[in-house]
Design a protein that fits this description.
Layout lengths: L5 E4 L4 E4 L4 H22 L8 E3 L6 E3 L10 H21 L9 H13 L33 E5 L2 E3 L18 E4 L2 E3 L1 H8 L21 E2 L6 E2 L25 E2 L5 E2 L1 H4 L2 E2 L2 H17 L10 E4 L1 H10 L12 E4 L3 E8 L2 E3 L2 E3 L2 E7 L7 E5 L2 E2 H19 L7 H20 L12 H14 L4 H15 L4 H17 L1 H11 L5
Helix pairs in contact: 1-2, 6-8, 6-10, 8-9, 9-11, 9-12, 12-13
């Protein structure tokens, strides 16, 4: 993932500085005093002279109180002018921009002068705003007063420069541009590391497209994110789980153009002898549902080339392209099967022994062929599918359209996977008996528990069946599964025998 509500702030923060030097401001203050004293000497004592004194801004006009020279002493006039100068200083300070204020020493100087010469009457401008020496800004980071030095303002508040920190790394943000997620600021580099998706193949940041948007591919089950370019740059893909090969984890080359990841290799079945126990367990599963196969149908594990050659020699049947992984033969052929399992040498399989075998037809089904080097659950799902083809032919189901035949075969494959992945799941058809339950439970106990990896692979194979996009395998499965869930497997099969279609 990431944090939602992300904004990229491209405008700079507002920076300010509180003070200039103390000597400079003291000099200006003394010039004001000198100017006022000179103006007091030149003003004279005319009783009728009423001048407007400008305090602070031009729109702030105060009328100076009228007093005769005879009514007050020279000392009192000097005190009055001193108070006037202090008021002028404070008023001019109030005109400064909000980011600037005098330091505390200016106020202290003004106060000391007032303390030495206390006024005998109120100052000229009693309503001039009083200066708060400590300011009114609170740092949004440390929650302390911002009293002096630089500060910055953003996100509607103010910060000491050292308090405006990245939520991810904790270091201060000194750049003018940063990223914002909710109310949390980030360095742009930190936020990219946190939220920008990385390719799980090359481990680089996924680049943006021409429109400036992040575009990537994502596997619908494994959620593997990768750059679109890896679909066309010959990156290896596991022939079982469909995940792309990561650059830091090499896949095993099977030797016929396929690759296998290490997780799928853990439970891969490599030769015909290794597959026999699984084949008999699935035949027992059929028998437990009162769907016993009366004929002994040979089963062979074969290479990809041998399977493709057998498909060419087969007259009937629909094959799932571009990759066919199983076949129910009805013609006599000579097929090369895997006699001895290969071993892993480096990143490839070596030392495999094969043997040609003549298959003769004794019934409607000659043999069942399955692609070698697939995980146990995938091999079992293919066997359950092909055995259903054999059962339909042996029971006289003729001339079914591909959607019906492939659909009902996929249902049996899916049901078997459910019993393997979710042993407690009650998915036995309505015609099942207690013998079926005991047969299934006994076969499960012989196999033992499955690892988390194999469990996840089983869920993926079920996902593949349920979400297949082809009309025969995908559309046929969904129609067949709906009929079986509504009417049960036995009534659905009887309806197919009579009408050639699924019951509605």
């Amino acid at each position: 993932m990431a944090p939602s509500g992300v904004n990229q702030l491209s405008h700079p923060c507002v920076y300010g500085e509180f003070v200039s030097s103390y000597a400079e401001r003291k000099s200006r203050f003394m010039k004001w005093l000198s100017k006022l004293f000179r103006s007091g000497n030149n003003r004279g004592g005319t009783a009728g002279n009423r001048n407007h004194q400008l305090i602070g801004d031009e729109n702030m006009v105060w009328r100076a109180p009228f007093r005769s020279v005879d009514e007050r002493s020279r000392t009192q006039k000097e005190k009055e002018e001193l108070d006037h100068a202090i008021a002028l200083s404070l008023a001019e300070d109030s005109k400064r921009p909000s980011g600037y204020r005098w330091q505390d020493k200016d106020n202290e100087l003004a106060r000391s002068l007032q303390d030495k010469n206390p006024p005998i009457y109120p100052p000229y401008a009693p309503s001039v705003p009083q200066y708060n020496p400590y300011g009114t800004r609170i740092c949004g980071g440390c929650q302390q007063d911002i009293r002096y030095g630089n500060y910055l303002g953003c996100m509607g508040t103010f910060f000491h420069p050292q308090c405006f920190c990245c939520r991810s790394c904790g270091r201060p943000i000194v750049e003018n541009e940063f990223s914002l997620s909710g109310r949390d600021p980030y360095h742009k580099s930190c936020f990219k590391e946190l939220a920008h998706p990385k390719c799980e193949v090359c481990h680089q940041f996924i680049p943006t497209n021409r429109a400036g948007l992040i575009e990537y591919r994502c596997h619908p089950f494994w959620s593997q994110k990768y750059c679109p370019s890896h679909e066309h740059d010959n990156t290896a893909r596991c022939c079982s789980c469909e995940r792309l090969e990561s650059w830091d984890a090499r896949y095993i080359s099977v030797g016929d153009g396929r690759s296998l990841c290490f997780e799928c290799m853990e439970s891969a079945i490599m030769d015909t002898g290794d597959c026999q126990p699984l084949y008999h367990a699935i035949r027992d599963y059929y028998e437990g549902m009162n769907m016993k196969l009366d004929q002994q149908i040979p089963m062979l594990l074969v290479e990809r080339q041998a399977l493709n050659e057998a498909i060419v020699g087969e007259k009937n049947g629909l094959h799932h392209m571009p990759e066919t992984r199983g076949l129910c033969l009805s013609e006599e052929q000579t097929v090369t099967s895997i006699l001895k399992r290969p071993r892993i040498g480096g990143h490839q399989l070596i030392g495999m022994r094969t043997q040609p075998q003549k298959l003769t037809r004794r019934c409607e089904v000659t043999a069942i062929l399955v692609l070698y080097s697939l995980p146990r659950l995938l091999t079992g799902a293919i066997l359950a599918h092909e055995l259903m083809h054999g059962w339909l032919r042996l029971k006289g189901y003729r001339n079914l359209n591909p959607e019906v035949e492939e659909g009902i075969c996929q249902v049996l494959s899916y049901m078997w996977l459910e019993t393997e992945v979710m042993p407690g799941f009650k998915n036995m058809p309505s015609t099942s008996t207690s013998a079926a339950s005991s047969s299934t439970s006994s076969s499960s106990s012989k196999k033992g528990g499955k690892s988390n990896v194999e469990q996840k692979l089983g869920e993926f194979f079920m996902h593949q069946i349920a979400n297949d996009s082809s009309p025969a395998y995908g559309g046929g499965f969904r129609a067949a599964n709906a009929a079986v869930n509504k009417y049960g497997l036995r009534r659905t099969l009887d309806h197919i025998r009579l009408t050639g279609n699924f019951p509605l």
